[in-house]
Amino acid sequence: MNNAREFNFDGLVGPSHNYAGLSFGNVASFSNVKSASNPREAALQGLAKMRALAARGFAQALLPPQMRPNFRLLRSIGFGGSDADVISRAYKDAPVILASAYSASPMWTANAATVSPSADTADGRTHFTVANLNNKLHRSYEHLQTARTLRAIFGDERHFSVHDALPSTPAFGDEGAANHTRLCASHGSRGVEMFVYGRVEFDADAPAPRHYPARQTLEASQAVARLHGLEMRRTIFAQQAPDTIDQGVFHNDVIAVGTGDVLFYHQRAFLDEQGTLHRLRRALEGVHAELRAVRVDAAEVSVPDAVSSYLFNSQLLDKPDGRMALVVPQECHEHPAVSRYLQSLVNSGGPIDELISFDLRQSMRNGGGPACLRLRVALTEQEAGAMHQGVVMTEALHARLVNWVEKHYRDRLSPADLADPALAVEVQTALDELSGILGLPGLYAF
Predict the structure, then answer these.
(1) Are 220 and 173 in contact (CB under 8 A)?
(2) Can you give the pTM of this predicted structure?
(3) Is residue 75 part of a domain?
């Protein structure tokens, strides 16, 4: 067994952070459509969270924003001329597509990739499979820059393997780590990887939601497990409850979160709750771990309450004493039923004994909470030393990034502002400087 730590790579919110309401099935995103956003505040809120957790001794790093607008998308569908011409014509003829090209959704790094640590894989390397995110136009191009970014940070092929996205077809709809949970006795030991899917492409009789789309397929999850060289006896495939998806639970991380030997989940998370728990316990026995399941009954917190507060889109962080801290958005304390539940949770004597809350309202209004903002990567000391160090959060990096945000970000962005060609220049200038701050020259293909 190797000593390992779980790093949280938070997405740095980009300069084009806006509320276009592009994600049907994501209630928070859809409900804030066309309202004005504050990119500066969003980025500073995220940086404050990263700094605070790093100061607590948790392993914290970041993933940079992607270039916006996505001129590749706009030009591929017939908008030509100069960059300013492209923006003007797109705003006039297809404003929703221009909003898609300006989407700041790469901030949700839980959707960047699925990660299997070296303790689980056949070749002993940490494997990443970039998510194709093909369910939504505004996310379907992200995988190109995500692969480029991950290879820049995890470029040492002795330790890391970054796989390109799966085929971009509905059969292999893949949303990354938002539908993946790893459970283990310790981060450096063998674990059990659970893939949660919403539908089965090649079984017309399989249960599926009726209102909102199921974004993750069983076939995609199985493909990722094969690419990573996982042992099937330590790999679990579980289906989301279709009626829960239809209540706005577009990813599993909106209704369940787990790390170490703890699974914090809602009663309505899985189609077969007891069968899923049984298979997890059996698999964990093989890696000398015992599941500590924390179940939230629907009578205590309803699915709509869980969705509106993003209770389960929280981070579970393991502390040196073996207990867990739960990082929740401020909204959890403002929701009466959820707040009552959380107080009873930390006083119950169970594995979760501490709450840490942050104001992430700008991100929450765009459809995601603390867990959406981060990609978990379990790394041994040697692997952590082999990755690019410029993205690891320190006091010095935090100070530089705060100055950078205050210099380059607008404090208000409305839908009409996307028509301003100066915004595109501002974003490019900011990200060019960011690549220097992070020590990643050539990160963006200008």
Answers:
(1) yes
(2) 0.95
(3) no
Residue 79 lies in a domain: no
Among the options 6, 41, 175, 383, which is catalytic? 175
Tell me which of 138, 159, 251, 398 is the catalytic residue: 251
**What are the structure tokens assigned to 26, written together?**
């994501």
Query: Is 91 inside a domain boundary?
Result: no
Active site residue 395: no
- Residue 97 inside a domain? The answer is no
Active site residue 288: no
Q: What is the pLDDT of residues 337-392, one digit of tens each?
A: 999 999 999 999 999 999 999 888 777 676 677 888 899 999 999 999 999 999 99
Total domains in the chain come to 1
CATH code of the domain containing 53: 3.75.10.20
Q: Which of 17, 127, 331, 372 is catalytic?
A: 372
Domain residue limits at 181: 4-68+103-437
Quick one: tokens of 230? 């996982």
pLDDT, mean of residues 95-109? 93
User: Is 211 labeled as catalytic in the residue annotation?
Assistant: no
